[in-house]
Amino acid sequence: MSTTILIVDDEPAIVDVLTYNLEKAxxxxxVARDGEEALKQARCERPxxxxxxxxxxxxxxxxxxxxxxxxxxxxxxxxTARDExxxxxxxxxxxxxxxxxxxxxxxxxxxxxxxxxxxxSASPSASQPTLAVSLLTLDPDRHEVQWDGKWLLLSALxxxxxHTFMRHxxxxxxxxxxxxxxxxxxxxxxxxxxxxxxxxxxSKMRTLDPRSADLLITVRGVGYKLTxxx
Length: 230
Prior knowledge:
Helices cover 45% and strands 21% of the residues. The protein is of the alpha/beta class. The chain folds into 2 domains: 4-121, Response regulator (Rossmann fold); 131-226, Arc Repressor Mutant, subunit A, CATH 1.10.10.
C-alpha cells in the first residue's frame, strides 16, 4: 500500500511543487486547501504524514494542528513564513514533529519527510532489550512504555526521544546530539524543535506521575539527561 501524504496549503504553486516531487518519490498525495477540508481529509484518508501550512483561509494551521492532536498522533511537518516565529513555537508545542520555513528547499523538505516516515515505520531487525530506569520501563519491540505499571502513551517522536535518553542514562545530551540521534539529520535551523519535544515528553510523564518527570533533567547551557535517581 502506498504511503499517503496530505498537503494542506492554499498556494497553488507550492501545492504543485510538493505534489510533483512527492509523487516522483512514489508517495500518494492528497490535497486540502483550507483548514476544514484538511480535517475532513485527515479523518477520511488517515494519511501517514501531513504537510501543514500555518497560514490558511478560515481555520488556521495552528487550530488544525490542535484538532488533529486531540484525535491522534498523525505526524505533522509545518510550513511557516520567516516572520512567524511565535506561531512556529506554538505549533511545535501543540505537537508538530518538525517545521520548514518558506521559501524552502525541496531537497530539505523531502529529507524531513523521509526522516519522519522512517521514524513512524521503524521496526528493529533484531529484538532489542527492554530498558528500565527507576519505575520506568520501555519495550522497543512492542513500542510500549510504562511507569510503575501504568501506560505512558507517546507519539513516535516522543517514544524515540525517551528511548534515546534511556540508552544514554546519566549522560548529558546536547541539543545537537539529540537532533542527530532522534531526528537523524544535520539540522541548521532552530534548536527549539528539541526543547519543545522534551517539554511535551516531560508534560506527559508529569501527567502520569510527577516522579517520572523528575527523572528528566535540564542541564542549563548544555542539554538534557535522564537520571536514575528518583
